[in-house]
Specification:
By secondary structure, this protein is mainly beta. Helices cover 14% and strands 42% of the residues. Mean pLDDT is 79; it is low at 66-73, 79-91, 158-173 and 325-332. InterPro entries: Toastrack_DUF4097.
Length: 363
């Protein structure tokens, strides 16, 4: 398969969706093809590395179609007192509140949106609330709950069928701009999905956090959990001041930035986007790109680091590193060293350990 056929399959598979959005995906793939071709790869090799276009098409359709429309979804509006930064006479209207559900023990949260941004913030009351930045937009949120799982979404405006083809109107600039989820502590699993909307999570404590978007950006700050999983197609990923046992990042062309992240296991896979990590603390790491650059700066004072780095046409720079011949290799017991694998086809690779700041005089 060659480039034109590959891109045409994606275009045809998504023809029932908004073409502005579809063109954004095609532009990202076109950019990747041009970059890989300039590095000497053939169109056939690039297509094989990208995988079956049918898989991408199905993934996009799954996200676009969201929850089955046959499910019963409610849209209650609840008024509760809001004592934070407001006078006692003011009230804040919430579209959904866990406090209104008798016998409801919330453990899992699912929310889907198309173009709306989604913000996760800590709950000030210990209850779970869902509301929109603009109160007039709250009627466009839909909710359902089963067992201990809440599921919500932004209602989508749909048109009638045209020659058997369902046309989606208001795909961009939809009925809601920003949805805010106030998250209490003790949640097991949080999963947020958007198409073009940005996702942010700040000061969230849960067992698992999963953020998925196609062209939106993902921003994580001061999160503490067992596992953090972030996936984008063209959106950037930014994760700062986070503690997690397992951190998994995936993107097609979005840049990834990690700062002050502490994790036992880091996995970052990117095709053409760059991966940059600073003040990183970890036990085991795997970072792979095709054409994106990899830059890693470890936190000062970490255990010794064993690194396996490969790049076909890019340069590799490991500061203060010691190259060991294959015949001198000795097995290193688990736990004695940090282990990092850095792989790229054409991107440059840089690894260094940060220097501890010198104490001032008299200290």
């Amino acid at each position: 398969m060659k480039k034109d056929e590959y891109l045409n399959k994606i275009s045809q598979g998504l023809k029932q969706y908004d073409q502005t959005y579809v063109q954004e995906i095609l532009d990202d793939y076109e950019e990747h093809f041009q970059d890989a071709l300039s590095q000497g790869q053939s169109e056939e090799e690039i297509c094989q590395a990208l995988g079956d276009p049918a898989d991408l098409i199905q993934e996009i359709k799954n996200m676009m179609d969201g929850v089955d429309s046959s499910q019963a979804l409610a849209r209650p509006v609840i008024e509760v007192e809001n004592s934070t930064k407001q006078s006692h006479s003011q009230k804040k209207r919430y579209s959904w509140s866990s406090s209104a559900q008798d016998g409801f023990t919330l453990k899992n949260i699912r929310f889907r949106a198309d173009s709306a941004d989604v913000r996760l913030v800590p709950s000030a009351t210990g209850d779970f609330y869902v509301y929109t930045e603009d109160p007039e937009e709250m009627e466009n949120l839909e909710h359902t709950w089963q067992g201990n799982t809440y599921e919500g979404r932004v209602r989508r405006n749909r048109s009638v069928s045209f020659f058997g083809l369902e046309i989606l109107y208001d795909f961009f600039g939809g009925p809601v701009d920003t949805v805010i989820l106030a998250i209490p502590e003790g949640i097991d699993d949080i999963r947020i999905e958007t198409v073009s909307g940005d996702i942010s999570a700040e000061d969230i404590k849960s067992q698992l956090l999963s953020l998925t978007t196609i062209s939106g950006d993902c921003r994580v700050r001061r999160v503490s959990n067992e596992g953090t999983f972030i996936t984008t197609k063209s959106g950037d990923i930014s994760i700062h001041h986070t503690e997690t046992n397992h951190c998994e990042l995936k993107s097609l062309s979005g840049d990834m930035g990690c700062k002050d992240v502490s994790t036992k296991k880091l996995s970052a896979h990117n095709i053409s986007g760059d991966v940059s990590c600073s003040h990183l603390v970890l036990n085991n790491g795997l970072i792979k790109t095709i054409s994106g650059e990899i830059s890693v700066k470890l936190e000062p004072g970490q255990k010794p680091c064993s690194t396996f780095a490969t790049s076909v046409s890019g340069s590799i720079h490991i500061r203060d590193g010691e190259r060991t011949a294959a015949d001198e290799f000795q097995r290193i017991p688990d736990g004695d060293r940090v282990k990092i694998t850095l792989n790229s086809i054409s991107g440059d690779i840089s690894l260094k350990q940060g220097k501890a700041k010198k104490s001032g005089k008299g200290q």
